[in-house]
Design a protein that fits this description.
Blueprint (H helix, E strand, L loop, with lengths): L1 E5 L25 H13 L7 E5 L13 E7 L10 E7 L19 E13 L10 H16 L8 E3 L13 E6 L6 E3 L2 E11 L1 H9 L2 H9 L19 H4 L2 H14 L5 E4 L1 E5 L24 H14 L18 E4 L14 H4 L7 E3 L3 E6 H4 L2 H8 L5 E6 L5 E5 L14 E4 L2 E5 L2 H10 L13 E5 L4 E6 L1 H5 L4
Parallel strand pairs: 5-9, 10-15, 14-20, 16-18
Antiparallel strand pairs: 1-2, 2-3, 3-4, 4-5, 6-7, 6-12, 7-9, 8-9, 10-12, 11-14, 13-17, 15-16, 17-18, 19-20
Keywords: Acetylation, Cytoplasm, Developmental protein, Isopeptide bond, Nucleus, Phosphoprotein, Ubl conjugation
InterPro entries: SUFU-like_domain, SUFU_C, SUFU_C_sf, SUFU_N, Suppressor_of_fused, Suppressor_of_fused_euk
GO biological process, one term: signal transduction
Length: 485
């Protein structure tokens, strides 16, 4: 539960929140980490010392569900000279270390990041006659914070979040998010480390898809050039009815398509509804280590096997891949798709992972024939995987939202892959790798062209390349939701 109240400055932290340690010293009035962030807010809003604030009634460190202790809401007059409209500015408190006493975050010193190293902000266009800020952005920020706390994955500028629902639960076209640096708030040095400020930017589905196929930073730059779609401060207007490509059709062809062709895609992994079958092995084989077999009982992994696989997946796929966002409520399931600049060495494994988790702990199997299964949303990303990633010498991973299953497509230039040109299908437990040559990728793109027209799509749909012993099926969501059905 949350409550709205006047801010009255940063709230007191309760017993143990102060910085005084001697018997003759008094604890600080405010938690030092919170005070540092509040100081940056006061710099921007000296005339608003008591902003409205949404506060978690039962704090996270007392067992409450909401990781953010507070979300402050300020009225920003914008900048008419830059064509920046008046808007509401939301700032979170809690992803960074506010207290420094290990109640939420482990204190690791003053030089590194404080807590997760960032707080979230959001800029919402103020509607005419609106006297108080809407509070729904606070719940949106709590949802993102829950993901960070549960997964221990942080956000970076350029990341994007597939939300699949209007951010304010209205009929708005703004249904997804990009993340960028806040244009006004500067990094803060607190007694518990450095805090930066990442701003949430609401976008339409078409803009999200463009970010997936190219990169988030490129789309953010385009949004900055279109005043009604964000402008220089990237202000979210929930009433925006047109995408930037409808406002200026040249942006798609001249900027996005050219960027995809030149740069490829920075999206290298998604959480998905997916599965795979080893068609070269009879189903009754007890050693079969397929992770999900639609229509059959999946083999159960031992606890030790599961931990080894999770560690291998975490270290082997940690370059640009994250788990799915937890649902905000029972009616909405959200997924985070990472959009991140490629690493210096585009590899499936970190340099140290092989020493920590030897490959022999999980036996590698070469497969003769495989059957890949995706729901429609995941299948629609296959052309992106092929055109934007593999043709640029990169890899792309589907990580199942229902278990340890992972399917990684690799090109011949990717380092660290256990699939080879001689054995293009290989598996480490439930992790399948598929190596595709450039010639085969080009052919698949032609055969899969109808995936780009989902409105004409009828499920189930099957594609097959018999000479390559590869089959791909696009199946209804219900198949994955009820794998034994």
């Amino acid at each position: 539960m949350e409550g709205v109240r006047p801010g009255g400055g940063p709230p007191t932290g309760g017993p143990g929140s102060g910085s005084g340690s001697g018997s003759g010293s008094f604890p600080s009035l405010f938690p030092p980490g919170l005070h540092g962030i509040y100081g940056e807010c006061r710099r921007l809003y000296p005339d608003q010392p008591n902003p409205l604030q949404v506060t978690a009634i039962l704090k996270y460190w007392l067992g409450g569900p909401d990781p953010l202790d507070y979300v402050s809401m300020y009225r920003n007059l914008g900048n008419p000279a830059l064509n920046v409209p008046e808007h509401w500015h939301y700032v979170s408190f809690g992803l960074s270390d506010l207290y420094g006493d290990n109640r939420v975050h482990e204190f690791t010193g003053t030089e590194g990041p404080s807590g997760f190293g960032f707080e979230l902000t959001f800029r919402l266009k103020r509607e005419t006659g609106e006297s108080a800020p809407p509070t729904w952005p606070a719940e949106l920020m709590q949802g993102l914070a829950r993901y960070v706390f549960q997964s221990e994955n942080t956000f970076c500028s350029g990341d994007h979040v597939s939300w699949h629902s209007p951010l304010d639960n209205s009929e708005s076209r703004i249904q997804h998010m990009l993340l960028t640096e806040d244009p006004q708030m500067q990094p803060v040095q607190t007694p518990f480390g450095v805090v930066t400020f990442l701003q949430i930017v609401g976008v339409c589905t078409e803009e999200l898809h463009a970010a997936q196929q190219w990169n988030g930073q490129g789309i953010l730059e385009l949004l900055r050039t279109v005043p009604v779609a964000g402008g220089p401060w990237l202000i979210t207007d929930m009433r925006r009815g047109e995408t930037i490509f409808e406002i200026d059709p040249h942006l798609q062809q001249e900027r996005v398509d050219k960027g995809i062709e030149t740069d490829g895609s920075n999206l290298s992994g998604v959480s998905a509804k997916c599965a795979w079958d080893d068609l070269s092995r009879p189903p009754e084989d007890d050693e079969d280590s397929r992770s999900i077999c639609i229509g059959t009982q999946p083999r159960r992994l031992s606890g030790k096997d599961t931990e080894q696989i999770r560690e291998t997946l975490r270290r082997g796929l940690e370059i640009n891949s994250k788990p799915v966002l937890p649902p905000i409520n029972a009616q909405r399931q959200n997924g985070l798709n990472l959009d991140r600049a490629p690493s210096r060495k585009d590899s499936l494994e970190s340099e140290s992972s092989a020493a920590i988790i030897p490959h022999e702990l999980i036996r590698t199997r070469q497969l003769e024939s495989v059957h890949l299964k995706f729901n429609q949303e995941s299948g629609a990303l296959i052309p992106l995987c092929l055109r934007g990633r593999l043709l640029h010498g990169r890899h792309f991973t589907y990580k199942s939202i229902t278990g340890d299953t992972a399917i990684t497509f690799v090109s011949t230039g990717v380092e660290g892959a256990f699939a080879t040109e001689e054995h293009p299908y290989a598996a480490h437990g439930p992790w399948l790798q598929i190596l595709l040559t450039e010639e085969f990728v080009e052919r698949m793109l032609e055969d899969l062209e109808d995936l780009n027209s989902p409105e004409e799509f009828k499920l189930p749909k099957e594609y097959s390349w018999p000479e390559k012993k590869l089959k791909v099926s696009i199946l209804p969501d219900a198949v994955f939701d009820n794998p034994l059905h």
